[in-house]
Specification:
By secondary structure, this protein is mainly alpha-helical. Helix content is 72%, strand content 0%.
Amino acid sequence: MLDPFFAPVALLEGLVRPLCDSLHLYSLPLHIHEILSAFAVYHVIFEYVAPPLSSWLLPQSYTKLSWESKLRWNMHCVSLVQSVSICVLALWVMYADQERKTMNLEERMWGYTGAAGMVQALATGYFLFDLSVMIRYLEVFGVGMLTHASSCLLTYTLGFRPVFNYYGCVFMLYELSTPFLNFHWFFDKLGMTGTKAQLYNGIALISVFFSCRLVWGAYSSFNIYRDVYNALYLSSDTKFDSRPELMIYGQDRSLPAWLVVLYLGGHVTLQVLNVFWLGKMIAAIKRRFSPKAKIDKKEK
C-alpha cells in the first residue's frame, strides 16, 4: 500500500539520501518530510496551542498550576493527541494494507510498504520531539524519561533500514492505553481525585493496559522472536516468493547481532517494565479510592 501522506519533497529527499544510504537507512528519505512534519505539529501543540487553550478552557485550574506542572500538562496534551492519532492510523493500516497483511517471513523482516512506513515516520517524529523536550527540561522530567525517549527514537529510526517494518504498526498499539493514563493525570490536576469519572477511567486504564501491553505485547513479542529465529536459522533453506515491490528497499538483508540484541532485549525489558508499571498503576488507583488516603490533588 502506498504512503497516503503527501508525496516526499524531492529537494529534501535528495539532501538526506547520501547520509541515509551511508547509515543503511534506505527508506528514511521517503519519510523525512513526515518525520519533520510530525515534529513541527507536536512542537506547535506543546508551545503554542496547549498553554493558551488550557488557560481559556480551564482558567481556574491550569493557571494555578506550578511552572513544572504546566510543562507536564502541556506534554500530556501532546501525548493525548499523538496516542489517539497514531493508534487510529496503525489500526487503519493493519486493516487496509493488503500487501502488509500477506507478507511472508522475508517480507516481514526486510520488506516495506509506504503506509506502514508512514506510521513509523510519524512515531519517529513524535519521539524526536519528545527527546528535544526531555533534553530541554531535563531537570523536570529526569534521566529516566530522557533514556526512554532516546531508546524509542533509536529503535524506530533503525526500522528504516528497513527492518521489522511490518511490526511498526503492531507495537504502536501499546499506545492504546496512553489516553486513559493522560486523563488519569488530568483528573488529579482538575481536583477530581477519587471521583466516579476517575474510577471508571482507572478501570479502563488497567483493562486496556493489561490487554494491549501484556497480552497483545507478549503475543506480538513471541511472533517477532519466532520470525527472527526463523530468519537466522531456517530462511537459508527456504526459497521465498517475495514480491519485488515490497523488497525494493531491502538492500541490507542481514540481522547483525547488535540489532537483534537491541530489538529483542528491548522487548524483554519493556515487558518487564509493563508488569512493574501495571502494579504501580493498580496501587495508585487503590490509594485514590481508599477512605484513609489523603492525596495532594496537585501532586506531580
